[in-house]
Amino acid sequence: MNVVRRSAAALAAAAVIGAAAPAVAASPSPSPSALPDGLYGTTDPKYDGVWRQSLALLAQHETGVQPAAKAVDWLAGQQCANGSFAPFRADTGQACDTKTMVDTNSTAAAVQSLAALGGHDTTTGKAVTWLKSVQNKDGGWGYTPGGPSDANSTSVVIGALAAVGEKPAQATKDGKSPYDALLKLALPCTAGGKDAGAFAFQPDKKGKLAANADATAAAVVGALGKGLTGAATKPTGTDPTCKGSPDAEQAADNGAAYLTTALAKTKHLTSAMPGAKPQPDYGNTADAVLALATAGQGDKAAGALGWLQANSGPWAKASGPAAYAELILAAKAAGADVHDFGGQDLVEQLNATGPKPASVSASTAPADSTKAGKEGKEDKEDSAKKDDSSPFGVWWIVGVCLVAGIGVGFLLSVRNKR
Fold first, then answer.
1. What pLDDT is stored for residue 362 in this prediction?
2. Comparing 69 with 380, which gets the higher pLDDT?
3. Burial (CB count within 10 angstroms: exposed 0-12, middle 13-18, buried 19+), residue 137
4. In this structure, which of 210, 243, 261, 343 has its CB flanked by the most CB atoms within 10 Å?
5. pLDDT for 7 beyond 50
6. 291: closest CA among 270, 278, 305?
């Protein structure tokens, strides 16, 4: 799901989904004067702390890195007593209450990360119970409890259910499963042109669906019952084509066909604020690569993967741990070398944004691993200064999401989401 996306998800939720936010929702916990020792990244974690931590730990796990215990403990310690997670809680000694802004995306991402690492069954079990308790009658989930279902949030929760060994199709509310919710957000093949087979983030106020590349990438993975790490599958041997009356699996294929078309010309997805020139969307492009690989269409993502290898370095450096993690997960799904991604060692760069890992697998460590897993405090301070002035910073992404309604579901990680 997208890298910087979650960072503004809470902010964007109120503006993009309007009434989706419950009346009890208030401002997130204030940020501490000093960042927690176990946290990845140097930017304000108020809106994306749990999201970026979850992605970082997942990416490390996928590449044979055992995270520092304090990094894992920090994530687990963010949970509220009812099982939910807020984007960030500055004082975990204070119990969550009705003013604590919890959300499905932070909770589902934390579940996927902690389930992968193992040893957190009680924590993940409570979180999944909470997620089920806030499922909508259409079978899906919104960003905030009670908010209208969206493709991104529904998909990340599907991934959480699968991560703990549950069958998403059996998680129903009023007889509707998460897959039913996703199918309602799928544009029909009769939509014609470039929008055929895409998914919408949410219907607009009139119930109309608008194609959204970020939501499509998330929904392709979710419709296949997978999570944030995706799952590379064998090539299908056929080009993806849009076919009518789809079940969840066919809807995923339809979404893959849409993404293939969207990437064909420029090899990347774009985002744009009103009145501004479209800009390359690195996070959403990475999401699309992972989605295509998961759908067995990894060969259709080769051009986008090559584009990311050649161009994503400055963006990842400016955006921080979630960006590195997103690139790692996309590269892994597509079969690329995470230690030589356009000349960059993504694992080493991710490790340097947080506490020194407990261990790095010899089979996955780079030849020169002396820099990998530095304590990273000085480097993190330097990168923080660059983050604030970067054209790829969080608030540019937030602006895009607020205006276009993109990425609130999956965010404000960095996916425009679309």
1. 61
2. 69
3. exposed
4. 261
5. no
6. 305
Measured distance CA(232)–CA(221) in Å, rounded: 11
Q: Tell me how far apart the alpha carbons of residues 98 and 23 are, in angstroms, rounded to a whole number.
A: 10
Measure the CA–CA gap between 121 and 330, rounded to whole angstroms: 27
Answer whether residue 132 shows pLDDT above 80: yes
Please give the model's pTM, rounded to 2 decimal places: 0.84
Whether the per-residue pLDDT at 352 is higher than 50: the answer is yes
Q: Are strands 279-281 and 412-413 parallel, antiparallel or unpaired?
A: unpaired
Which phi and psi angles does 197 have, rounded to 5°? 85, -5
Q: Which domains does the chain have, with CATH numbers?
A: 4-413 (1.50.10.20)
Residue carrying the six token digits 């994306």: 48
Q: Are 39 and 49 in contact (CB under 8 A)?
A: yes
Closest CA to 242 of 199, 197, 211: 197
Contact 285, 308 (CB under 8 A): yes
Q: Which of 392, 384, 415 is nearest to 41 (CA)?
A: 384
Residues 22 and 73: their CA atoms lie apart, in Å, by: 29
> Which ranges of 277-405 would DSSP assign to H, the alpha helix?
282-294, 302-311, 313-319, 321-334, 346-351, 377-389, 394-404
Q: Determine the Cα–Cα distance for residues 225 and 118; give it in Å rounded to an integer.
A: 20
Residue 385 — very low, low, confident or very high, per pLDDT cuts 50/70/90? very low
Per-residue confidence (pLDDT) for residue 40, from 0 to 100: 98
**Residue 338 above 90 pLDDT?**
yes
What are the φ and ψ backbone dihedral angles of 88, each rounded to 5 degrees? -165, 135
**CA distances (Å), 381 to each of 69, 203, 394, in order?**
22, 42, 17
- Interatomic CA distance for residues 2 and 78, integer angstroms: 21
CB atoms under 10 Å from CB of 382, counted, come to: 12
